[in-house]
């Protein structure tokens, strides 16, 4: 028998006797780790040296100066950039190429805050975005949902509400997210109302609003004015929009009009190039990152032209592709490295960053799902990302939101609270006295140091099975996916709606009803 | 529909048309990543500042100076440390406590090489251990094996050979390991002969020898003399022993005699405290790391007293425990952080490090298995570990070696080849021309840059399913564990024994036969 094994067995045997009575309680209880948002206690993982970073920045500048960005269907955005010094070239009646002198966009971004607060309706749950703050939010944008019972199907408003409730029930997320899944049973031109209302009603955390049309962005913000009061909204960030560039190097009019709506209202916006390497960005990661920086900077800069000081978040979503099938791949090593570099670039810009998440292409909550997720998610927490959308539920290359994966991911988010806390080094944690107390060859179960630390020393997963094989086998030999399946049902059953002022609730419902009555259903 | 999703779909659709014909081939082919060992291309992830590291080192020194290490049943080791300046205190007739002045052990370690070569019988597969080199080896020491067909049972020599063959078949491991599983169908006092022979016969990579008794260590080395020639073995490292301290703060006689046997022969040795926090080390990670450093340094130092310059590897195996059940837990965040610190400490000592691996407590190759594995394994590759034992197969808290997990882990090891390569930043990879070639709004599928890089840009997993859901579903909707189950059988079927000089083979078999005939079977 290997020595390692023997030691483990001895330790396990010894531990049965001792202090077990003192150590009970439900799994997954690490209340000392619960926070409205994480404050990073570990350094970032800096991959590249200053020279390489400067080369990437110079390439981003060169892209903007020599290739330029194409804008579509939004003359006001073109006017703003022209006034700021951009070189506008008319392509068609409603599309323009704009080139930017090196450094111009960086200058515009100087008014963007390095860190800001997004207020939640429960003030104890407001989050900071930027600096050492880290915020986890659920996945975003899947048309399908899946669970082990019913398989894969289109998402509905019931699924949408369920995921908000599951998020609200987890202490390891900090933000309610946005389009957690598409509620495809509601008309496209009306579903934003139900989504925003559901976030407000079933969660007391901060959330994202609609961006799929300028009027839907306005509705989202208007509902916040009902909730928070118009004056408060004018002076504080209470909602954010998550905007995608149309890579490579295009910003369409729906996007720029939406960005302007959020910025005009003083609200936050996230500026995301979704870069599928080889398709809409170069296959090589240095090039994808340079392009990402160029696109996200320009998109962020628009906010500062509309309202200097408006909160804007640099963002990156790097993915790779299967070069055999052309399918996008997620959770692979190259994008994880690219995310680490994006963290460095965001810090050099002194801007908050959204980056990576629990990505996977798996179609089940299986080993592949969590291996890929970890590759991606570790890069998020190590790169210094401030807002991690897609922290829970992501499967099927973002086409499906999984109930079981959501549970697994939130548990992982808990573990990452412990990870981001880091290692404390002081006389107590160095624990010389613990070893000296009994000396060589004696276990430490009952030392004063162990008694003092046993409740808080280690992350205590609610999902992992750490039992001996025999116990696990006697209890049915259940895998992680099956445990997660039970768990999400338990959590939904135990969910409690956070209190909401009835007057505000009524006003919100009235607003929705009026809006819905004002237009026929549209499904595009 | 979310913009992200829409973009992914468009990209997917477009990619079907283009250049698919040019992009075929079996999965998992990244021949450009194949190497006999990895040379790290990314920086290490340094968690603590110099002050904290100095505090940990001072605590390790204080442990050695004030508490000391207990030695048992090996007067020669006591004599060596006494002669070197250790303060020996007789505890019983065959146990001693030795205390070491601060700095004494570090001084002794100055003759230990920072980096050395372990020769494989196939010279193209020799590995470097130390510096920027990274070597992956299979898991070590499980009494049980498991697969999805037959479940969990005691390991046999057939399993042992199977795992050697699976390792040899994977380009993503570099070393054949040691006691991959216990061949429990062979007498304890004879199985080391079959294990060493199997490594030599079924693999052409470097491997670990026996450490369970001094004479078994000697036999292991003697078999290498038959294989490599006695003179070569005297001047080169061709085998290593993996030794465990008996934590806390004990080195037993079997261990120290074994260490002396390997060192005397000029062979390598790994010096591992297996620290189950709260049981055999403090619950707080700073204390566990200080103890780990103290124990491993003393164990390493013995080699230098026996033969200055003998290769010795500092090591750490940090784990946590469930504070509710007392069960060991693996793949949790605190030990991952501790591993990052061990990397820093090893570099300050200028010694090679063995650290972490694909640890898990799961009893199945499920989501938990790979989530925990990743938490642990990422710390190994990020901390600068040079030799990563337990890189493949580890399940069930190291009690079981899993066929399916072995396949998943080796595929992950491949991904880590890409990760450790890092990001190249130069004019070609910055890819300005690729974006300029077609301009905004045009995909990059057929750019010259894409054509030049598509074969090597991304890690191409042999195990992950990255297909669209519909294709995956049509093909049976198979999970990662089931795919791994098919894969290990395919790999065993395709395995080819590397050639071995028939004269040497005969001599090895003769040695084994003589040894086996010289003693009755013993089962302890």
Explain this structure to me?
The structure is a homodimer of 524-residue chains. Chain A is an alpha/beta fold and 524 residues long. The first copy, chain A, has one domain (23-422, 465-518): Trimethylamine methyltransferase-like (TIM Barrel, Alpha-Beta Barrel), CATH 3.20.20.480. The first copy, chain A, is 45% helix and 14% strand. Chain A contains 19 helices and 19 strands. Chain A has helices spanning 3-17, 50-67, 75-83, 104-108, 157-169, 191-202, 214-228, 230-235, 253-264, 285-306, 333-349, 367-383, 403-421, 427-430, 432-438, 448-453, 469-474, 480-494, 502-517; strands spanning 38-39, 69-72, 87-92, 95-99, 115-118, 127-130, 133-136, 144-147, 151-154, 240-244, 250-251, 268-272, 274-276, 312-321, 328-329, 353-355, 387-388, 394-395, 400-402. In chain A, strands 10, 12, 13, 14, 15 and 16 form a six-stranded mixed β-sheet that branches. Chain A has a four-stranded mixed β-sheet with strand order 3-4-2-11. Chain A has a four-stranded mixed β-sheet with strand order 9-8-19-18. Chain A starts with a helix and ends in a 7-residue tail after the last helix. At the A-B interface, α1, α2, α10, β14 and β15 of A face α1, α2, α10, β14 and β15 of B.
Helix fraction of chain A by DSSP (H/I, runs of at least 4): 40-55%
**CATH C-level of chain A:** Alpha Beta
The N- and C-terminal alpha carbons of chain A lie at a distance of: 65 Å
User: What is the CATH superfamily of chain A?
Assistant: Trimethylamine methyltransferase-like
Global Rg of chain A: 24 Å
Question: Which band does the percent of strand residues of chain A land in?
Answer: 5-15%
Shape of chain A: globular
How many distinct beta strands of chain A? Answer: 19
Largest sheet of chain A: 6 strands, mixed
**Oligomeric assembly:** homodimer
With helices defined by DSSP (H or I, 4 residues minimum), what is the helix count of chain A?
Answer: 19
Mean pLDDT of chain A: 94
Q: Which blocks of ≥5 consecutive residues of chain A have pLDDT under 50?
A: 1-25
Largest interface: A-B, 162 and 161 residues
The structure class of chain A reads: alpha/beta
Total separate domains of chain A: 1
- CATH fold field value of chain A: TIM Barrel
Task: Identify the CATH architecture of chain A.
Answer: Alpha-Beta Barrel
């Amino acid at each position: 028998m290997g020595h390692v094994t023997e030691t483990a067995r001895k330790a396990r045997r010894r531990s049965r006797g001792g202090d077990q009575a003192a150590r009970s309680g439900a799994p997954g209880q690490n209340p000392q780790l619960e926070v409205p948002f994480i404050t990073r206690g570990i350094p970032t993982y800096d991959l590249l040296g200053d020279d390489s970073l400067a080369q990437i920045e110079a390439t981003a500048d060169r892209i903007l100066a020599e290739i330029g960005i194409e804008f579509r269907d939004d003359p006001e955005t073109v006017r703003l950039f022209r006034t700021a010094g951009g070189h506008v070239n008319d392509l068609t009646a409603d599309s323009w190429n704009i080139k930017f002198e090196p450094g111009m966009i960086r200058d515009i971004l100087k008014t963007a805050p390095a860190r800001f607060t997004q207020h939640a309706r429960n003030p104890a749950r407001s989050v900071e975005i930027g600096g050492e703050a880290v915020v986890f939010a659920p996945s975003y944008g899947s048309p399908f949902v899946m669970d082990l019972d019913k398989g894969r199907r289109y998402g509905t408003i019931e699924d949408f509400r369920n995921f908000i409730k599951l998020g609200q029930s987890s202490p390891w997320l900090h933000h309610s997210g946005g389009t957690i899944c598409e509620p495809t049973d509601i008309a496209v031109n009306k579903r934003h109302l139900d989504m925003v209302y559901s976030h407000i009603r079933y969660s007391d955390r901060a959330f994202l609003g609609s961006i799929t049309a300028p009027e839907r962005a306005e509705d989202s913000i208007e509902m916040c004015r009902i909730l928070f009061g118009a004056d408060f909204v004018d002076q504080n960030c209470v909602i954010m929009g998550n905007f995608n560039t149309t890579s490579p190097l295009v910003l369409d009019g729906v996007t720029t009009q939406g960005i302007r709506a959020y910025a005009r209202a003083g609200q936050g916006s996230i500026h995301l190039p979704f870069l599928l390497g080889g398709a809409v960005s170069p296959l090589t990661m240095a090039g994808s990152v340079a392009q990402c920086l160029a696109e996200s900077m320009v998109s962020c800069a628009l906010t500062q032209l509309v309202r200097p000081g408006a909160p804007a978040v640099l963002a990156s979503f790097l993915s790779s592709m299967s070069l055999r099938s052309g399918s996008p791949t997620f959770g692979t090593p190259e994008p994880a490295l690219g995310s680490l570099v994006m963290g460095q670039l965001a810090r050099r810009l002194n801007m908050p960053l959204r980056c990576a998440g629990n990505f996977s292409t798996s179609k089940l909550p299986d080993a592949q799902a969590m291996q890929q997720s970890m590759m991606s998610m570790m890069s998020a927490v190590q790169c210094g990302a401030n807002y991690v959308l897609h922290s829970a539920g992501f499967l099927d290359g973002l086409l499906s939101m999984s109930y079981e994966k959501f549970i697994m991911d939130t548990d992982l988010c808990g573990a990452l609270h412990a990870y981001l806390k880091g290692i404390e080094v002081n006389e107590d944690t160095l624990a010389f006295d613990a070893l000296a107390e009994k000396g060589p060859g004696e276990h430490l179960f009952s030392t004063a140091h162990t008694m003092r630390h046993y409740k808080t020393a280690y992350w205590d997963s609610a999902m992992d099975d750490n039992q001996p094989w025999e116990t696990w086998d006697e209890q049915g030999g259940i895998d992680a996916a099956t445990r997660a399946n039970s768990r999400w049902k338990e959590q939904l059953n135990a969910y409690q709606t956070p209190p909401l002022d009835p007057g505000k609730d009524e006003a919100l419902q009235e607003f929705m009803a009026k809006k819905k009555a004002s237009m026929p259903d549209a499904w595009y």
